[in-house]
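Worked Example 4.2. Read the sequence first, then its structure tokens.
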Amino acid sequence: MWVGVAGMLATGCGGESDQPSTDVPEWSFRPVALVQPEQPPFGRVADLELGEDGSLFVLDAISRTIRVFGPDGVEVREFGRRGQGPGEFEQPAKLLWGPEGNLWVLDLRNGRLTSFSPDGDLRGTHRPVDLPILFPFAVGFSGPDTLRWVGITSPDPANPAAAWVETEIAVGAFSPVGQMSLPFVEWPLLFQHRDDETSLVLPVPYSGEPLFAFDPQGRLWYNYSGESSLSRWSTSGGIQLTFGPELAPTPVTAVDREEALAREDFAEVRDRLGAAGVSELAGLIPENKPYYAAFFFDDEGSLWVMHSEMLVADPEGRRVDVYDMDGTSRATATTALAAAPGPRVRNGLMAGVVRDDVGVESVAVFQVVR
């Protein structure tokens, strides 16, 4: 069921920003609809895509299905289900459109890519051959039969390593045809404690993390969220473009620290290590918060960068900066959409996840007003 969102999403949809720009226009997002299916509701939205005609494809990680909503908001079909057979999923994580117009699904637990027509007809199942990526951060097409990946290549969280890998798609498989390490990647701070009874490795609150995306040409873009600059990376010459605004850091306050240390994520630290462990963890928390939460590309090739902090003037919204591929600033805006999974922008529409006060997920669709 689709319902109007003028009321629910009015906050965070305008062009306001805590740091307004006088050099670039402010875009806004006009609410179009909110997808709130009743039977069954979304379990957890792992990813989503917009179709060429404005239809919406939602990947549900709990039901292991892809639910399709037409441009008029009516749920028209669903395909996929839990399992290991053709067209079935165990841990579906990502959707992406292929150059041929098919919808590709990355299934981590089954270790494969599955492609479907927009109507849900199974087109093919492809398994990796000697792919060194243990966990993918990003994947994107660079040609009709070529996929590029970036991800973790080392299983040791204390000594992580990342690589860029190009794979060629053949019948039923995809295999590496090129690979390069990414030594410039910066990793999150980790809290590590090991003794005879306890082994804990946890990310430190407010630590930066590496963010990656492939543009429509298959080029890799990178940001360490603890820094305000973004980079485009070339397989032939390393980092070939770096840009970004000068942003004032946002300090981690005493209240932020207390709330972070009280989270359920760190219950084991509190229970097993007590005050000494909590103090050790607190000492690792950075002084400032990360700058960015996510970035992604629209169908025109523009780069959309979502800031991590909610706005003071608009506590339900995040600032978004839009750039051309040469780093030229195009616009700024504010959105109430969640940073994960990443929103999609296609044919003037923007779609992404919103969550209510108890965490129930819906998918909101907006018209981009320029």
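Now turn to a second chain, presented in exactly the same format:
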Amino acid sequence: MLAIMCYLLTASQGIEIKAPDNGAGRAIQKEDTWERLGKDLIYNFCNMYQPCVVERPGEAYPYLMWFFGWASADANPDEAGCDAIYHARSKDLLAWEVYAKDGGWDAEMKPARWKAVLSASERYYDLWHNGDPSVVWKEGRYYMAYSATSNIHRKKDDAHLDGMLLCVMGATSSDGIHWEKTAQPLLIEPKDVQDAADSNRICDFHRPSLMWDGHWKLWFDYWAPPNGVCMGYAENAGEFATPDGFTVAHDLRTPLILDWPNPAVVKTKGRYYSFADPSGYPTKAASTPEAKNWTTRAICEAVSDDGLHWHIVGYIPPDKDAAAIHVPQPLVQGDWLYVFYATQRGGEPVYDYRYDRIRAMRSKLGE
């Protein structure tokens, strides 16, 4: 039903793309299409990424960011579970300060001071990983969709990575710091699918992108054999936290975009923009398969008139001083489309997959 349509599109950046897209041979955008801000926004951390930025005009700190990972040490020994979500604020998108353990804010980039605002619970599907935050400000309240997982090696399983069950959880807050989790996940596999041993099943809802657009819209990635990690879509016409309120709005056997991990979607001027970090970018010279696998992933852009049928604009060349850049998150500010992202450490002879800086780039929006 939602198969990608077959025709030519001239995207806003002037790049002609053929459809349908099979995840291979995607175009590369021109170097000058995106302006890099040229500044590390948040840094000195152990391994953090997925910087979701929300704008609240008129506030003393109009820019708010939620991001996740490991602050000062691998696996966050001071937090429940492993990955946790943190919070920062800014007056100008350039200088940021992070919420701290003493209730204040750290502007000196000292991660040992930082305090997570959301971490694992005792629910079996929320025990280990809390991450990939996507936040919407609506009518005096913050709404978050985030990724959650069970503990690693929950059971021997041919389909779930390390035996982890992946799902999309929700949370709400009045201040962006203190959060109340929803009573159940926004998206999770049915129990019979969770416990099945079929490695070819569709599973692992994860990495959400939440939007209010007259009703709740939710893009996410999921495991869709034989196509790998692809983008799907769900919606909710009722209250955000209503049990079973979010329902998948297409046949999951037909992904919206093939090979589209870490999807993030924004809408402006009647058009939807999605960014992800799929494989397929020309890899840098590397001595190990691990390094080659990571550097062949790059931020890629897609556009849509309805949020369902997508056309690939192309890869964005990574920063010249980074091994790779991943986990994009867009923000529209006036006539500019910003993308926030993380830079990977890289290195030889042992490749370091962890991320060390959060940065941003921007591109002028067309009419």
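Notes for the reader: DSSP finds two helices and 24 strands in the chain. The radius of gyration is 19 Å.
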